[in-house]
């Protein structure tokens, strides 16, 4: 997979050059280019502002591209707007290489990535809006083991660590997660974590 980076910032361009081992193409103009679906597109929203969101709405979303939005000053409002436009990930432009590698791996596998600190604040805001939820009723369809694995995911444990903790195989963990996603009608781990934070399954 190669990367396409939309930015007008030389600082971000130089930073990205230092962390990417894959082939990278830099573009400044927001044109309806012939973009291959297997490319991972990094979009520097700070370079374009509202014009950038208009471009996403008019072109990028229609193409169902794998888009990562990068911001100089990440915030909840911008993150949620990015999500509404189908962006797969949202991050600080200058975050550490290890976080970029994690983000890239998740997006390549069809999952999403958002800054943990923004997710935490989003969880807190969501929780304030959902007082009175019957936790047991919402989680009733999960087995005891599925609830345990759900709580482990909420703690940020990897599949391997979950497997070790419950003395089961990673394949079994993946099977449980597939069942959990299906029962709760969720897409991936990020959605599961958000759900769990909302309903406080670890109470």
Characterise the protein shown here.
This protein has 203 residues and is an alpha/beta fold. The chain folds into 2 domains: 3-111, Rossmann fold (3-Layer(aba) Sandwich), CATH 3.40.50.2300; 130-199, Arc Repressor Mutant, subunit A (Orthogonal Bundle). It is built from 11 helices and 5 strands. A 5-stranded parallel sheet has the order 2-1-3-4-5, sandwiched between helices. α6 (116-128) runs parallel beside α11 and α9 packs across α10. The protein starts with a strand and ends with a helix.
In angstroms, what is the radius of gyration? 19 Å
Overall, the morphology is elongated
Lateral arrangement of strands in the main beta sheet: 2-1-3-4-5
Unreliable stretches, pLDDT < 50, 5 or more residues? none
The end-to-end distance, rounded to whole angstroms, is 42 Å
State which percent range the strand residues make up. 5-15%
What's the tally of helices? 11
The oligomerization state is: single chain
What is the CATH level 1 assignment of the largest domain? Alpha Beta
Order of helices and strands: EHEEHHEHEHHHHHHH
CATH arch. level architecture of the largest domain? 3-Layer(aba) Sandwich
Q: Quick one: biggest sheet?
A: 5 strands, parallel
Mean pLDDT: 82
Write out the CATH superfamily name of the largest domain. Response regulator
Structural class: alpha/beta
